[in-house]
Amino acid sequence: VIDAPDLAGRIAILKVHAKGKPLATDVSLEKIARSTPGFCGADLANALNEAALLATRRSHEVISQKDLEEAVEKVVAGPERKSHRLGDEERRRVAFHEAGHAVVAASLKDADPVHKISIVPRGRATLGYTWQVPATEQFILSKSALLDRLRSLMGGRAAEEVMFHDMTTGAANDLEKATAIAEQMVCVFGMSEGVGLVHYAHQRPLFLPAIEGDALPRSVSPETATLIDHEVRQILDQAYQDALEILLAKRPKLEAIAEALVARETLDGEELEGMLRPLKADRPS
Amino acid sequence: VIDAPDLAGRIAILKVHAKGKPLATDVSLEKIARSTPGFCGADLANALNEAALLATRRSHEVISQKDLEEAVEKVVAGPERKSHRLGDEERRRVAFHEAGHAVVAASLKDADPVHKISIVPRGRATLGYTWQVPATEQFILSKSALLDRLRSLMGGRAAEEVMFHDMTTGAANDLEKATAIAEQMVCVFGMSEGVGLVHYAHQRPLFLPAIEGDALPRSVSPETATLIDHEVRQILDQAYQDALEILLAKRPKLEAIAEALVARETLDGEELEGMLRPLKADRPS
Amino acid sequence: VIDAPDLAGRIAILKVHAKGKPLATDVSLEKIARSTPGFCGADLANALNEAALLATRRSHEVISQKDLEEAVEKVVAGPERKSHRLGDEERRRVAFHEAGHAVVAASLKDADPVHKISIVPRGRATLGYTWQVPATEQFILSKSALLDRLRSLMGGRAAEEVMFHDMTTGAANDLEKATAIAEQMVCVFGMSEGVGLVHYAHQRPLFLPAIEGDALPRSVSPETATLIDHEVRQILDQAYQDALEILLAKRPKLEAIAEALVARETLDGEELEGMLRPLKADRPS
Amino acid sequence: VIDAPDLAGRIAILKVHAKGKPLATDVSLEKIARSTPGFCGADLANALNEAALLATRRSHEVISQKDLEEAVEKVVAGPERKSHRLGDEERRRVAFHEAGHAVVAASLKDADPVHKISIVPRGRATLGYTWQVPATEQFILSKSALLDRLRSLMGGRAAEEVMFHDMTTGAANDLEKATAIAEQMVCVFGMSEGVGLVHYAHQRPLFLPAIEGDALPRSVSPETATLIDHEVRQILDQAYQDALEILLAKRPKLEAIAEALVARETLDGEELEGMLRPLKADRPS
Amino acid sequence: VIDAPDLAGRIAILKVHAKGKPLATDVSLEKIARSTPGFCGADLANALNEAALLATRRSHEVISQKDLEEAVEKVVAGPERKSHRLGDEERRRVAFHEAGHAVVAASLKDADPVHKISIVPRGRATLGYTWQVPATEQFILSKSALLDRLRSLMGGRAAEEVMFHDMTTGAANDLEKATAIAEQMVCVFGMSEGVGLVHYAHQRPLFLPAIEGDALPRSVSPETATLIDHEVRQILDQAYQDALEILLAKRPKLEAIAEALVARETLDGEELEGMLRPLKADRPS
Amino acid sequence: VIDAPDLAGRIAILKVHAKGKPLATDVSLEKIARSTPGFCGADLANALNEAALLATRRSHEVISQKDLEEAVEKVVAGPERKSHRLGDEERRRVAFHEAGHAVVAASLKDADPVHKISIVPRGRATLGYTWQVPATEQFILSKSALLDRLRSLMGGRAAEEVMFHDMTTGAANDLEKATAIAEQMVCVFGMSEGVGLVHYAHQRPLFLPAIEGDALPRSVSPETATLIDHEVRQILDQAYQDALEILLAKRPKLEAIAEALVARETLDGEELEGMLRPLKADRPS
After folding, report:
1. Which chain A residue is nearest to residue F125, measuring alpha carbons?
2. What is the ipTM of this complex?
3. The whole model's pTM is what?
4. How close, in Å, is residue B282 to chain C by CA atoms?
């Protein structure tokens, strides 16, 4: 497991791979680096090559910031797949689902800002997506930031409930991500009062002078497993309830954004900010 | 795991493989593509080759739509196996079993329309089959669509119960499929209130910047396993009860279709529609 | 897993392998095919070669129906092993055990007819055997057919109880087969009310367009395991009680057949039918 | 897993390997074959070669029955290891332990007759042994024969309790054998009323025409595991109580045989019979 | 598993690797050896080479004690990674977290003295660290030394609670180490009254003359697993409560050290001692 | 698994390897053989070679009994490691720990006599050791001998409790050995009334003529696992309480021996006997 470079590392890598490529004067590699936390070196090289291709296809002599941003998006979410034509009803579903993520995220103090939402199908399985980018590079996450991440993930399913009083298979991926975060909160980060400050996950060897031996390869007792399951469930239930409450309160915004998505397919950070700006002010922290 | 091409992809693939093959003027590759969700490229190529063979065997100079449809059916359900001669009693059993699937599916708002039912044995183990094709290409399934799928699967066993007050080994495959769907509803799609919005299946690595590590390879507690089993059971029990209720109410239709099957072996979508059309109207949604 | 050919297939295979072998005019390959459900191609070839050998050893110029039948029996139950000399007491035990299977099977409406019973030791571990052949080729089995199969399997142990008020290791194989059938009734065929219509066995990948992923590799909860164990046990207990009740009512027949076996070692279908014919009539269905 | 030849087989194998070896006129290969149930062909060849060696070492021109019997014993229990000198106390312990086995076995109707007991250490771990040989070749064992086998196995520990009111590590092997037999009674032979006629051991594929698939690789529920443990425990407890009761009643015989063993190291079947003969008569069956 | 050399061994190894390297007259290899418990030979060689490199880079002709100490630190905690620029808020978090470790450790009689604390990011994942070095070489650890180690590990999370009433992902590594220690106290060192003097971890073969066989590969019962989990949890809960109590009582010291860290990035043992010296006196043992 | 030679075997092996080596007239190879139960041939050869080396290093022309004894000790406990310098407090700890073993062992009727105790560190991890050698070669161990072995093992931790009212990591190895013995008492030797005469450990194939099949690879039920854990715990608790009681009663002896160890590092069997002789007399058996 190699971890991703930090911001400074990403800028340096981008500069290396940009050598010999004609960049437009408006290009800010730092901006690109800020929007790509989690990218490894190969991802960044990939993005620069995609951008060069795009510029060529557009018969531009230099790579513009827009080319770069589209290239990054392709690496993040896969290539567009316009042939993947959803029915009108499905398209509306997806629009409300993504709008739900965006409205919930925008209503929370510690959620990452929404960079873009889209209902253009991409890659193998993406019917729509909500792209969040942290305002600043973060190395430590607070419990409240993790809870806001969970609430945002639950926004998709919650929006479907609010609008259609029904549920679909579309939230499967959100639930998988949310469950993994909640399990780490409980088992790795010591963030659940019920389970306490015990580490219940990786049983790795441990460097301890004068105590011979490795960490024990022990499995938890059934009672502890039940306790962990209960805490994970509580965290997820609460996150969903919070998301639902936010969307019920902001239903007009939700509808406005979803309809805008249906009409325009994609809303970028600024457009969203325009429609959502009043939201944060509404909500006492 | 490579997923199947979508409608547009299937049309494109069919066109490629149809090049150089003499198609009759009535042939609609789109229609073929619509009836083959889940086919991969090799399946489609296979179907076109089978159709060419059929045309040759029939001494036709061009491949007709009928040739293509028979070829698709062979790929879906295996080659006919006329030598597999069932006794009269068994044949009647199979006819009622398939008619049960068809009547239940036709009575439900969100079940896929029945394209064909047959009691011609095919392949290794198929004594009869009910072929459903979705009206439009679907990327997201609602909970009610999944429930209707379960009810349709339970229609075979329910028909045996209604007619013979007895059960056979013939429903084993239906139960296996239904159980897998119910488990996914509960463990992957968050569609059971009792279990809630927790993902209990694949524990895959998860892309989470700033949180080091993989999703935990944890197994659920015995209590949660009991809860999951209970929810899966409830969903399946209810689906069977619903199927049973539908067939008890529509028993004359069930008998008519089963007898028609015994007499003619196969009923296509239009013939079935003729006999079943009033059904949907009967049933308030 | 390749499944066995059906009746038509077996006839065809026998014809292929019979080419060039001199068959007596009385030979009916169809009759041979009827008595060999479950034989694969190699088994059938094997039986024809054994028959040829037998004919040669007997200095016949053609293979007779009797040669063929003995050859089939050798493939079904292994070569005779006359050296395996049981004591008188053990021989009587074995005779009552096999007579128990035969009498129970003959008393049941849905059990396969008994083709032959024998107390000639065969192969590695067979001290006696009861050979049943279905009257017609069957592709679906009803719950009552499975229950009758279980009752027949329990007939051996039940006969020992009735005659000797004691039990031996001789029923181990019967119990293993019976347990496997009962487990499949409960976990695969949905034939137990207590467990319901849930599939609890093979968790195989499942072809489901639009629902990504495989069936879940989930294990059942302890509560469900208990429920399954309970249902399996109930089914087996009941089958044994039924077998016992039948043999208590037909004790004179049981004794007559067992004594005949001790005297003549083997009874074929017709001889048995002669001694047992009144049985079915005795028993209301 | 190849199973051992039966009596006839063993006689035949002995004859083959005896060819060319000078046998004394008193030699009865059948007697040798009777005392070697469970021997495979290689064991029998081995015994004949050992006997030839012994005869040579003794400068005899022919192999005597005595040579053969000693050779068989060496194959059964390993080579003598006179260097293994036990202390007087330990030797007495071992003598009472073996005498316990012998007295219990001799008191039971269905236990195999004792062929020899010895306190000459043999092989790696044998400090003494009790060699039982069935009176006739047996292919089926009754529940009472298995219970008598368990009682005999418990005789060693019970004798230690009766004489020394103490226990040692010397019964470990007896307990292991007894546990395996009791588990098979409960899980394979259907001999426990509490567990019933269910097979809980090897889940082997099963030949069942018309029912597709293998026996299920299912593990038992915790409740069933508890039930099995309970039944196994009951059977073993009872066997020990029975052994204890026998030895308390026959204590003078136990002491006489143990003292004889201390004095003469070995007692053969006839010597034992002489000292034990009245025992069976004492005990109503 | 090769264990690390002891103090004498480390001095000897350092001398070997120092041969031919120009050391300044102030260099004390013993001091270096004292600060490197747990280093293997390769680590020590590594540190000497790093020190030589540092001296060269600084254009010094001899290696100074300072060069050596920096080289040791690099081996302990990884290379500095100044590019890893934390935001102001995160830097303050890390400073309080490390200050928490240091203040708790300094307040305890049996904790190892703090050698240095730093908030210079290092290596892949270290945002700050607290480096403790035992006063004397220790081969046995008392229960109270282990408890003080746990309290010190909990000091980071406790400081975050005291100052920010919030928790972050930053304590994950502390919790993992603390859990491993607590599990060893309970399962290997017999230090929990609830679990008692039973060894529940490695089931290794065991040298025991006259008792044949290995330690049993047995897993603990669910009840024992629950008991172990409970004891581990209690130990960790108590350690955290103790850490919290210490920091609440010493809050001004905590703040002073954290602010000093924010300002100067690093505090060495002597600087810390200056700010912390009164602490031990405050606390009755 | 090859088991170790017995006394006679060890004498024979020593004689073979001593050939050609000049032995002093005082050398008794039998004495050496008596002190090396559990040694394999290679260990004995190793000891003779070490003794020859020692004699050479000491410029003796013959190998003395003392050389041999030191060589044996090196094989038993590893080479001396004088560089491993413990602090005074740790040295005292170790001295009391070893004295605890010795005093408890010497107070018990069935414990092996103490041959030597030492606090010279040896090998990788041995800070001190108590070397017990059985008075006579033993092939069977009584329950009371095993209990005395457990009490002796608990003597180290108990001495620490008596003197320091505190516990350390130093008893880890004792607890591991004691747990393995207690588990074998319960699961292999049938020495616990609660668990009874059931074998719960190695499920090895078993030679049983006429009963086909292997011992079952069954795992115990949770209830039985709990019972086993409980019995093991009881045995260990009681052994510790007994050790504690002995040391509380003999505290002056404990202190005298520990202080002697601190002063002289090593006490051999005779010196110990001198200081401990009155102990056995004190204690009624």
Report:
1. A212
2. 0.86
3. 0.89
4. 28
